[in-house]
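The protein record filed here:
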Amino acid sequence: MNELLGLSITQAAARLAAREISARELTLAHLDAMEAYRSLNAFITETPERALAMAEASDGRIGRGEAASLEGIPIGMKDLYCTADIPTTAGSRILAGFVPTYESTVSANLWDAGCVCLGKTNLDEFAMGSANVTSHHGHVTSPWTRAGDNAALVPGGSSGGSAAAVAARIAMAATGTDTGGSIRQPAAFTGIVGMKPTYGRCSRWGIVAFASSLDQAGPMTRTVADAALMLQAMAGFDSKDMTSADHEVPDWSGLLKADVRGLRIGIPKEYRVDAMPEEIERLWQRGAEWLRAAGAELVEVSLPHTRYALPTYYIIAPAEASSNLARYDGMRFGLREEAEDLTRTYMRSRAEGFGAEVQRRVLIGTYVLSAGYYDAYYVKAQKVRRRIAEDFSAVFERVDALLTPTAPSAPFRIGEKMDDPVAMYLNDVFTVPSSLAGLPGISVPAGLDGQGLPLGLQVLGRAWDEQTVLDVALALEEAAGFATLPYGLGEAP
């Protein structure tokens, strides 16, 4: 493997600043990796010419002493972010041919910080999925395989393309979006770091909407320090987004420390679910011991409404999706399937443009918003959501952060759960509650299961307290010392 592919962002930034390597060299190494691992299907659109032009511009700024915080760092951009003059598909056929004339706020922030765009990463269609198998552009394959078994595994979803790209060393980092766990769960499945900040910390403007009260942008990286750097560039108030919070962006990277002495870490008892593998339970206990040994106090806590989080989420999220996706009618952009009249043109365009999972969620959402069911389902779900948020608020009066598993299983084979939507939805059981409450969370790779597959631990924190979340995550990262590469990666360029 090219030694440049093994660098973290912080390591690469230091070498770029010292002129030991150039941004062009760094970008070329990752473009070669992109070609070598094209079979993973991690990218929908590759932009090598743009990447090299951006890298050369970065080299110029570095030479003039004008380098920004992420100058020359090649990244992948989830294809849910609108990017000017680059196709944006959201993984769906219905957006075929759509090329935005504008840039999302988060992607613009990253280009301003000096990042180099390698391309647009694959995702579950409209971010609806937990395995990255619903994309119109084909499923993404994880770079990981089970020991002694070459069967293709899922990278998690919906940000599976971003996760696979970072894990396979195609990109130094990538953007994701997290509605119910779509950054943290694929991060756990692929052995990388994935962070969802507080709802409102990053602008949603220019990100194709799934569920507007839940969607949040975040970074996917190889280390916690890299996540802090990426998030710092991505975050900030945006007047174009009514859900963007006018909060100062702290210097998370500069303040980052693995010192957890005196912190109280909660262990929520409701996160011990039926049929959870014993390996995940042991890893959770080991993570708690690492934090205790580092000087933290461990406290068992209760989040009693956690049991209702998944059904609540799968009422609210589809309801918002049915509203957001009403704009895709074949009239102004994307796929248009002509029919004998306007109504049938709408129907054909949407039937041909949306995949099965998106249609399922739109139907569920339309049903729970319909007359006679709105109060029984949607209003009740919003009340339960409030109770879930209140549980977290009460717990955070006693503790500084929570430690949980990230996912209830290791990555599974592609196709293994496709015929059982409920089983697929259960992949988000540990990530959905904090999403409903709008809280920050991070997944850190912490160990391997018996088949050699990565497992993650999740840290959750108070709203707007990303610093504590990052600090606890760094302590876990240092204690775990996770350094295993996906098998066969060393044979790459």
User: Anything to note?
Assistant: The first strand starts at residue 43 and ends at 46.
